[in-house]
Amino acid sequence: MEYVLEAESLGKVYGKKVVLFDFSLKIRKGSIFGLLGPNGAGKSTFIRIVSGLEEPDDGTLSLLGEKAGKKSRRKLGVAPQENAIYNLLTCMENLTYFGSLYGVTGKTAKGRAASLLSQLGLQDKKDTVAGYLSGGMKRRLSLACALMHNPEIIMLDEPTTGLDPATRIKMWETVRKVVRETKATLILTTHYMEEAEALCDRIAFVNTGKVVAEGTPNELKKRVGKEIAKLSTVPGQAENVIRIIKAIRGIDNVTETEHGVIVEGKSIAARLPEIAKILEKHGETVVEMTVSRPSLEDVFLKMTGLKLREVAKAESVKRNWKGEQS
Ligand SMILES: Nc1ncnc2c1ncn2[C@@H]1O[C@H](COP(=O)(O)OP(=O)(O)OP(=O)(O)O)[C@@H](O)[C@H]1O
Ligand SMILES: [Mg+2]
């Protein structure tokens, strides 16, 4: 089995609102997979459908090589966006309770709970009721609860929202360790680009209920494509500089700024020596150059900042689709 999760054209409608539409995704066994997208994109809805808390209105879902159902969902551990822990139970009681739902009981449960508490830095809170924990501690307890039965697929909906930077990095380490040791597949949602970049083998950008791009962080960044170079020259006659650079093959755009020009084009960094040489020939000497590469943030903005025209088109397709349903 290559993929532990295969979603094919999932659709979900709440009342008149189409929340997922033609949502397709494949997640490879053993990978750490990130779902990124703006508020309301449909990430949590997808997670609820995979968890079995919601039924899709359309499409198919398979988990661990079979149609998603009770059996495959027992091998799933989910920490939802809103912590699903019991405030009146202690940390230990929460953990043993969640373990018992999956048949992990007695000594095994207690041992596993103690080990998770210490892995997540909650050993001192073992007998504290969850209601008295800080927000970040609740988040960690919620993660521990999802891991009690050694799930083969772990789904964490915004696991590090509200955590302080140091705790967040510790959480990454824990999550990596769990994945490595249990050979589980991890699916997480996040709004932190640096988190996605640090943790995820692959990322899917979700926008208005659909996967709009999928790939490794590097692939995605390459897709936005352009590296940007900033050049300052002496004497720095902007018009002249722009004309010269524009005439070079493969240059997409040159714009004037206060301190020189910005050059856009594919693999611009590698071409800087060549550009400098040509400028020199025309009497402009490069005195400073910097290159900035596209970040995941750029990809996010590009992939989710759809032009209004495209949104309107997507909306009309959705309306038609809904029409067919009723
Ligand atoms: N039970 C529900 N009834 C009606 N609408 C719902 C329900 N659950 C979710 N929605 C709507 O579905 C859309 C997608 O919500 P969802 O929670 O999946 O987004 P998300 O991508 O997880 O966003 P966030 O990043 O804010 O967590 C939103 O417009 C939301 O209002
Ligand atoms: Mg959400």
Write the layout of secondary structure elements.
Elements lengths: L2 E12 L2 E12 L3 E5 L6 H9 L6 E6 L2 E2 L2 H4 L2 E4 L11 H11 L4 H14 L15 H13 L5 E5 L7 H18 L2 E5 L3 H7 L2 E6 L2 E6 L1 H8 L2 E8 L3 H9 L4 E7 L2 E6 L2 H14 L3 E8 L3 H9 L3 H18 L1
Parallel strand pairs: 3-8, 3-9, 6-7, 7-8
Antiparallel strand pairs: 1-2, 1-4, 4-5, 9-10, 11-13, 11-14, 12-13
What does it look like?
The protein folds into two domains: 3-215, P-loop containing nucleotide triphosphate hydrolases (Rossmann fold); 226-292, Alpha-Beta Plaits, CATH 3.30.70. It has helices at 43-51, 70-73, 91-101, 106-119, 135-147, 165-182, 193-199, 217-224, 238-246, 268-281, 296-304, 308-325; strands spanning 3-14, 17-28, 32-36, 58-63, 66-67, 76-79, 153-157, 185-189, 202-207, 210-215, 227-234, 251-257, 260-265, 285-292. Strand 7 (153-157), helix 6 and strand 8 (185-189) form a beta-alpha-beta unit. The chain has a six-stranded mixed β-sheet, sandwiched between helices. The chain contains twelve helices and 14 strands. The model is unreliable at 306-312 and 322-326 (pLDDT under 50). By secondary structure, it is an alpha/beta fold. The protein starts with a strand and ends with a helix. The structure holds adenosine-5'-triphosphate (ATP) and magnesium ion (MG). Magnesium ion binds at residues 43-44, 81, 157.
